[in-house]
Predict the 3D structure of the following.
Amino acid sequence: MKPLAIVAVAATTLALTAPAPTSRAGESEAAPHGHTAGLPRLGRSPSGPCALRTVTGNVSEGSRTPRGYARSSGTVRAVTFFIDFPDAPARISPRKRYAEFFPAVSDYYRTSSYGRLDYRSTPVPRWIRMSRPYRSYGIRRGTDFDPYRDDGYHAIAKEIVDATDDTVDFGRYDLINILAVPEAGPPATQDVRSVTFAGSSTGLNTRDGVPIRNVSFIWSRQTGDSPFRVLSHENAHSFGLPDLYYTGRGRAVTTPVGHWDPMDEDWGPSNDFLAWHKWKLGWLTPSQVRCMPRVGVRTFTLTPTSVADGVKLVVVPLSPTRAVTLEARAPGPLDHAVCRPGVLVSTVATDLASGAGPVRTSDATPASSGCYTKDPNVTSSLTDAPYRTGQRCSAAGVTVDVLGRTPSGAWRVTVTRRPAPTGGPPATLTAAPPP
């Protein structure tokens, strides 16, 4: 579920904890799951001291995704349904509604995963008319999937299952997509109601006992250059990713990541996933991740996430649940709004819930209004967040110095890790004067 379009906001800072004792880095030797012939070698599930602990059974930044969520590499199959209502009848064909999302969603995941996610959607190309008017289901932002009520998402999903159970083998699919007629409910610019129920079973089963889970409901239409990404965002919840934007009453005015990941902003021009998310989802091989768990000085070369080869992620673990991450970002097939290529520095916290800012990006130019200011759906103040040659950020005993850009477009950085001071409030990772 996404918020409304976010206009330019102030720079975001990063809260960090003290570092954990140093330990030896390791790589998982477990066989990758979901391998598909013809695709590149799949990445492995994160492991070692940089694979932060998972502390919840819900979506989170934890390296281990709990059971019940959909696999996120290899071949993933979705079934896609279409629903309309007596008071909101369909005015277009289901194939036209389907074309708003596919093959764009499949292509998006193929590109972002470097070919390691083969997303296949099977449409059931007919409108399934709900038995009651839209308003009688009580769908609002935050409506849950309560199997003990005769309205809400449970009632809608039950009608879909009843209408299709004889012809659809739900056990063949990892994801369920439900595309509502766009006229049902308010426009997305007024109230965003798209939502995913991921992980554990919803309490609804098919007649042959298949649990209904990892189901995404898409309402209305988003605006912008690539509105299909609302489904990419929602499906990513089924892969285990949390919301990065702030949710709940009194949520912060600032946004923690901005347009650097669709789990924060999926409006406006396209944007790629953070390298941490690519690692978590199994899209990076162990050789593409560098871990620095010990005190010392190391130099790394990062290739932009927009290209397939090279090192994509540097992780400096601060505790079992928090880390500093580095990645290079540059314009590419999925990074249309990158106007200041450089090194993106963030913190990841697996002990912060979805919607509580579990990832926070450091702004290299906190006094700037940004370099991409033409789209109100993009947080412009963070568009120039990457660090560039000669810039430094520092906190909690970790200092990052950007040395420069190579002729091939990669970025060289030096990370200095010292023993962090103990006690006191969490540190803030911000831009610092150059050496």
